[in-house]
């Protein structure tokens, strides 16, 4: 039976932390029946979040989703800290009892939760933990496959690194290049159907997981677009970012930034460094392990600006950094791809 | 029944990766009956590794350790990758059958291994996983307790950061300062009896684990010496290093280096950056999360050099960096402590 998804966002559909729901709507290939979100219920998804593109209904509860024929409830929020809250647990249990499988990328492992596992067994449905680490992870080998690796890095988390990566891959494939998107987080995995959530593996193995993804990707295509995670200046997630950077050993970096952001979203008061400094920081970090890479372009998330304001912001960033700045989500990935100098 | 330890090193007692055995011998307060190491059997520990200080016998196998009255087998090696090998598994099973508990800081979780768990249950002995993450870890809060945090960082792993941290703490307490050693790895935990192995937690929670240690440490003393892990230039472990650095939010850094090392030990061909550049790298990394700290002194591991050569090497490092350079393991921690400017 094909998946018919209901995307649960716990009242946060309009917020950037609902990026899993947004990403599946925009880039996923599976059928989405509805969004479940009590705050935005009654609207359609693309009206509330234009990025999402699909005009699926937003309903208030799991019961309505089941009535619309959904057979999989997807936790569509990547919450700060990644835990399953009591409120969400109630929704998950309701879905299981309504014969829906549950797919989630939380740090809370659904299948290891006694209450959820018992309920799923009783209903005969699946619990899919997208963040579960594959067996056999370890430290990375010294050598990287002979492929070209493009890696998105950022000024903060939840600013659109995955979207930029997907747009670059789509633009490359549209030109006939053999390329692959390499998912490193739960949303990317939900979209691509493979990958490793590098933020959920044992910290000693972050680089090893990234390296394995590049090795696996090399069997798919000679040009890999590896999704970034977190930010080197993020007080909670910087370790994931650096381990991924060192394990992926990119040839080219794309720096992602959200227009107008001045502080780390999860840590108000911790300033985001100016873009030229961020470029230096990321380039320097690649050189620490003797695999130097350059930032070749800036991807700017201009969500919330009108087209004129967006173009002005891109021009400002170009002047500030001396690099091409583009918003591939708004204007397509071609211009950004050109700037990478891959062909 | 008090622990009577046998330290198992799988033929590697003389190697720096047997740092868990070496650290327990030098700094631990528990009784050590013997070392189990077929390569060095017949010698005494302090003859093979003077750092270890204790003249305990080295025996060839678990059987002899049991005959000497050992009741706990400690895996005394921190192997690259942290897995339990088949050879070690045989020794662990032999120990369990000889009524010995087993203590280990591997990534392989002994208590989750069906064969070992069944054997331990049958013999009525404990399996102690020092690296097991405590429950309830998450991302760090924004605020750090109002204590002074000294943190050791390094040019590579397994070069003596823990020893430097312990020597500084001992020197501080000898002066009547209220201080505490904060263990962040398995050897430190085996010595101190508390701590978190930050390299074994989910990568998203490395900084959160470090932050929790500082909060826990603050209830013990107003001056904390937080053990470092890995190195920012280590291709496998850099993510752990950065997460720990950002979670601990140190006030003062001590850069640790092994005299004469030019490449990352686990990755020959990946050069260690010059010390002045490492100082800049670590200081810059602290500033990324808006909690800048300075490297105040260099701890140089001069093991293998005679006293004159060691003093010459310290003088060379002083000239190269403009900072005090000392080997606290060889000459005591006082000089290094003075350079931190804490009093």
Can you describe what's shown?
The structure is a homodimer of 343-residue chains. The longest helix of chain A is centred in the C-terminal third of the chain and has 15 residues, at 307-321. In chain A, 36% of the residues lie in helices and 17% in strands. In chain A, helix 4 packs parallel to helix 5 (114-123). Chain A has a 6-stranded parallel beta sheet, with helices on both faces. In chain A, strands 8-9-7-10-11-12 form a 6-stranded parallel beta sheet, with helices on both faces. Chain A has 343 residues and is of the alpha/beta class. The termini of chain A are far apart.
Provide the fold topology.
Two copies of one chain form a homodimer.
Chain A: E1 4-8, H1 19-27, E2 31-36, H2 45-48, E3 58-59, H3 62-67, E4 72-75, H4 86-97, E5 101-104, H5 114-123, E6 127-129, E7 148-154, H6 161-174, E8 179-182, H7 186-192, H8 206-218, E9 223-226, H9 238-248, E10 252-258, H10 275-287, E11 294-301, H11 307-321, E12 324-326, H12 328-331, H13 334-339
Parallel strand pairs in A: 1-2, 1-4, 2-3, 4-5, 5-6, 7-9, 7-10, 8-9, 10-11, 11-12
The tally of helices of chain A reads 13
CATH superfamily of the largest domain in chain A: P-loop containing nucleotide triphosphate hydrolases
Give the CA-based shape of chain A.
Answer: globular
CATH topology of the largest domain in chain A: Rossmann fold
Proportion of β residues of chain A?
15-25%
DSSP summary, beta strand count of chain A? 12
Indicate the percent of residues in helices of chain A: 25-40%
CATH class of the largest domain in chain A: Alpha Beta
Mind telling me which CATH architecture of the largest domain in chain A this is?
Answer: 3-Layer(aba) Sandwich
Q: Greatest interface and its residue counts?
A: A-B, 47 and 47 residues
The spatial strand order of the largest sheet of chain A comes to 3-2-1-4-5-6
Task: Work out the oligomeric state of the chains in this entry.
Answer: homodimer
Mean pLDDT of chain A comes to: 96
InterPro entries (chains A, B): DgcN-like, DgcN-like_C, DgcN-like_N, P-loop_NTPase
Pfam family, one (chains A, B): DUF1611_N
Domain D-glutamate N-acetyltransferase-like C-terminal (chains A, B): 144-337
Domain D-glutamate N-acetyltransferase-like N-terminal (chains A, B): 39-132
């Amino acid at each position: 039976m094909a998946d018919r998804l209901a995307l649960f966002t716990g009242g946060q559909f309009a917020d950037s932390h609902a990026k899993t729901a947004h990403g599946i709507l925009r880039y996923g290939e599976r059928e989405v029946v509805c969004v479940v979100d009590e705050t935005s219920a009654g609207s359609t998804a693309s009206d509330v979040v234009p990025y999402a593109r699909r005009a699926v209904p937003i309903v208030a509860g799991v019961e309505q989703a089941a009535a619309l024929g959904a057979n999989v409830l997807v936790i569509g929020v990547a919450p700060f800290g990644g835990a399953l809250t009591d409120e969400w647990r109630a929704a998950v249990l309701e879905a299981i009892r309504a014969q829906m499988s549950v797919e989630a990328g939380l740090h809370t492992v659904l299948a290891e939760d006694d209450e959820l596992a018992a309920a799923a067994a009783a209903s005969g449905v699946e619990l899919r933990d997208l963040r579960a680490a594959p067996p056999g992870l370890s430290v990375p080998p010294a050598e990287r496959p002979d492929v070209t690796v493009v890696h998105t890095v950022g000024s903060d988390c939840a600013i659109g690194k995955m979207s930029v990566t997907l747009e670059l891959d789509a633009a490359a494939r549209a030109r006939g290049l053999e390329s692959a998107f390499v998912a490193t987080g739960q949303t990317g995995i939900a979209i691509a159907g493979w990958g490793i959530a590098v933020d959920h593996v044992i910290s000693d193995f972050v680089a090893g997981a990234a390296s394995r993804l590049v090795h696996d990707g090399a069997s798919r295509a000679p040009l890999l677009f590896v999704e970034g995670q977190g930010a080197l200046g993020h007080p909670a997630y910087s370790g994931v970012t650096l381990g991924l950077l060192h394990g992926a050993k990119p040839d080219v970096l794309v720096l992602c930034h959200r227009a107008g952001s001045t502080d780390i979203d999860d840590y108000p008061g911790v300033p985001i460094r100016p873009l030229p400094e961020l470029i230096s920081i990321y380039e320097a970090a690649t050189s620490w392990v003797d695999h130097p890479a350059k930032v070749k372009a800036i991807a700017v998330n201009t969500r919330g600006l009108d087209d004129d304001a967006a173009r002005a912001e891109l021009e400002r960033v170009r002047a500030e950094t001396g690099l091409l700045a583009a918003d591939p989500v708004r204007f397509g990935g071609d211009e950004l791809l050109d700037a990478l100098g891959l062909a």
